[in-house]
Specification:
This protein is α/β, with parallel strands linked by helices. Helices cover 26% and strands 36% of the residues. The chain has 5 domains: 88 residues, no CATH class; 149 residues, Rossmann fold (3-Layer(aba) Sandwich), CATH 3.40.50; 101 residues, Immunoglobulins (Immunoglobulin-like); 196 residues, Rossmann fold (3-Layer(aba) Sandwich), CATH 3.40.50; 94 residues, Immunoglobulin-like. Helix 2 runs antiparallel to helix 14 and helix 7 crosses helix 11. 32% of the residues are buried. This is VWA domain-containing protein.
């Protein structure tokens, strides 16, 4: 406490004593014990009130030792168990974390990872994916700006995520402890298989297969592709100590519509330690219809190329680029994308009055808005010649179709003429326009439907920057391309609105997230947040049925079906209140990516250690690792002076004491007839 506080406390004692004396003892001739007791109570009450007002603070200071953190991260994926290294992993983690010298020097913190990253509680070695890149991201987030070493106990066989070698901070040393037998054994492996998810009826679709060999002698293997009991393709492939890889390209016929499941296999007469990686199942959905989209533009613009690439990322879509004066007939197209219409588009609008195709209109600084006012009646444009930048604001209540927020608020602005855009009739707005973060209430991306004809409007050019920014944020164009294709899919369908819309894939690989989403709409076609959706999933072979509830998300209901075994499944989604239902089918292909390895990835883990100036160790070098950590003088504990300030007395208890003192005084005076 400060000197001023002490003086205030002494003054409070004096004031409380004087007031109490004046109240009960001053000019009192016959001073009894009752007077003395009441004086004491009054003194305590007054002093407590003054103490509450002063609220004296006690300051304490102590030295605290801050140790360098040492995260110990253990690989919890099933590949560790498959390589017969799970007992060794547990032993190494325990030996390192329980070492008294390590505990004295470091703040030891244990974690585990597979396709997730969390604090270590119990190792199961049942994770169906390995993501070391996620470990790097979490360490950077947990230990911001800290200088520390980390020990990763793993086989180094990553199955998902970015290349982890360059994901870790370079100034923080990583010490991998390599699990698994490094002895090279004879092994044939289908390392990777590339195939499109869709093929078209009566066509042939390509399959690219990368084969890998591990061994010290020459061998001839047989590679085949079969569907059921029918072998569709077969060839011999030769390997040797100098030829470890081979690429096989196959063309398979698409003769039947629907989901077609195939099995790729490589085998030889030699005995192998691991035969799981000799087989890879894959599936292709054969379709007999392709959506044809025409992008009509009188000008050249980067938006057009970005739209074409995004739309054609879905193999069911084919894009044709045409100029307005080149269109003679619209019968070959399903959807029209009208890019910055001008009077040159007159013939296109006239032709579409007969064809009645759904349209996606994109405006910009080259658009003739007077012409657009004449040719459509969904919006009225009152635009000036001044150009303006418009940022996007995502509407989470949008319910025409399920769409994720790509982070539209942080994407680059679109450019359009400045003015007012007024809608005629019902309009569903997905993105609203903002000018320098000020809401305008004007639409930026909206949808209309009149007498069965659907239209989409994007009021701004330079959406190519959105695709580029999405790639920067996600290291992939996929999210943006899916967003554009959902717009095209909506426009390509002329079906009446359904009350129950279910989205799912035709097939999944074992270990992948199996997520099915559904939307339920009421009679006004508003998203019904009170719907009760369930799903019944039946294994076609065993006829065993499992029931799940779908949980409400932002603008859709979702269910996660992880844990289902490989096989064919029928399912039915039902809304319990209205009894509306939807039935579908999907396949789970038998492919466990964690069983594809026979050895740890020693080279990759050594690269990681070298990149961070650490060292890779094998299990029999655990003592060397401990010695390396203890002898490294870079990691020293830091003394920190921690100052804490706390009230001398808790004010809540002080209020209680004041109430007790005053109450006791009142009752005592009443009892003695002194009121």
């Amino acid at each position: 406490m400060t000197t001023g506080t002490i003086l205030l406390l002494l003054l409070s004692l004096l004031i409380a004593g004087c007031l109490s004396f004046f109240q009960y003892l001053y000019k009192v001739k016959n001073k009894s014990n009752a007077h003395l007791f009441l004086t004491f109570l009054r003194f305590l009450s007054i002093f407590s009130i003054l103490l509450l007002l002063i609220n004296p603070i006690v300051t304490t200071s102590k030295l605290e030792i801050i140790k360098t953190p040492l995260p110990i991260i253990v690989d919890n994926s099933s590949s560790v168990s498959f390589l017969n290294a799970k007992e060794k992993a547990v032993e190494l983690a325990r030996k390192l974390a329980s070492n008294s010298a390590i505990q004295e020097k470091f703040d030891v913190q244990s974690y585990l990872f597979d396709n997730d990253f969390k604090q270590s509680d119990s190792l199961t070695f049942k994770g169906n994916q390995t993501n070391l890149d996620l470990v790097a991201k979490n360490l950077k987030s947990i230990y911001k700006n800290a200088f520390y070493p980390s020990v990763i106990i793993t086989d180094g066989n990553q199955t998902t995520g970015n290349d982890y070698v360059y994901s870790f901070a370079e100034n923080n040393k990583v010490y991998p402890l390599i699990l698994g037998d490094t002895t090279k054994v004879f092994d044939l492996k289908i390392n990777q298989l590339n195939v499109n998810r869709y093929a078209f009826l009566k066509n042939k679709f390509p399959v690219e297969v990368f084969l890998q060999y591990s061994g010290d002698k020459s061998v001839t293997a047989s590679f085949s592709v079969a569907q059921g009991n029918e072998v569709l393709y077969k060839q011999n492939v030769s390997f040797s100590p100098s030829k470890k890889t081979a690429v096989v390209n196959v063309l398979l016929p698409a003769n039947k519509v629907g989901l077609q499941v195939y099995k790729a296999k490589i085998e030889s007469g030699e005995k192998e330690k691991n035969t799981f990686n000799n087989i890879k199942n894959f599936a292709v959905e054969v379709i007999d219809q392709k959506t044809s989209i025409a992008i009509v533009s009188a000008i050249n613009h980067p938006d057009i190329g970005a739209l074409k690439r995004a739309i054609e990322s879905n193999l069911q879509h084919k894009v044709t680029l045409v100029k307005p004066n080149e269109i003679n007939s619209l019968q070959d197209f399903n959807v029209l994308v009208l890019y910055q219409p001008t009077s040159a588009f007159k013939s296109v609008f006239e032709a579409n009055k007969k064809a009645n195709l759904n349209t996606f209109t994109i405006t910009g600084t080259a658009t003739d808005f007077s012409f657009l006012n004449q040719e459509q009646n969904n919006f009225v444009f009152k635009m000036s010649g001044q150009e303006e930048d418009y940022q996007a604001d995502f509407d989470s209540q949008f319910n025409l179709f399920a769409v994720d927020n790509l982070g539209f608020e942080s994407l680059p602005p679109l450019q359009n003429n400045y003015g007012s855009i007024t809608s005629n009739g019902e309009v569903n707005v997905l993105l609203s326009a903002k000018i320098r973060n000020i809401e305008t209430k004007a639409p930026l991306l909206s949808f209309t439907e009149n007498q069965g004809k659907r239209s989409a409007y994007l009021f701004g050019e330079n959406s190519w920057k959105w695709r580029l920014q999405s790639h920067i944020d996600n290291q992939s164009f996929e999210k943006y391309d899916i967003f554009i294709n959902k717009i095209i899919q909506y426009l390509a369908s002329n079906n009446a609105k359904k009350s129950l819309v279910v989205n799912h894939e035709s097939f999944y690989n074992t270990g992948e997230a199996i997520e099915i989403t559904a939307q339920y709409f009421n009679k006004n076609y508003d998203f019904d947040e009170k719907a009760r959706l369930t799903i019944a999933v039946t294994n076609v072979k065993t006829r065993q049925t499992r029931n799940y509830d779908l949980l409400k998300g932002n603008n859709a209901y979702k269910v996660n079906l992880d844990g289902l075994l490989a096989g064919s499944y029928d399912f039915s989604v039902k809304e319990l209140n209205s009894k509306t239902s939807y039935s579908g089918h999907f396949e789970i292909l038998d492919f466990d990516i964690e069983k594809q390895f026979v050895n740890p990835d020693v080279q990759k883990l050594k690269q990681l250690a070298a990149q961070t100036k650490g060292t890779a160790f094998h299990p029999n070098q655990i003592e060397t690792l401990i010695k390396t950590l203890l002898e490294n003088d870079e990691y020293k504990a830091v003394q920190k002076d921690v100052v804490t300030k706390s009230p001398l007395i808790d004010w809540k208890w002080l209020l209680v004491l004041i109430a007790v003192f005053l109450s006791t005084e009142w009752f005592f005076r009443k009892y003695n007839g002194m009121l």
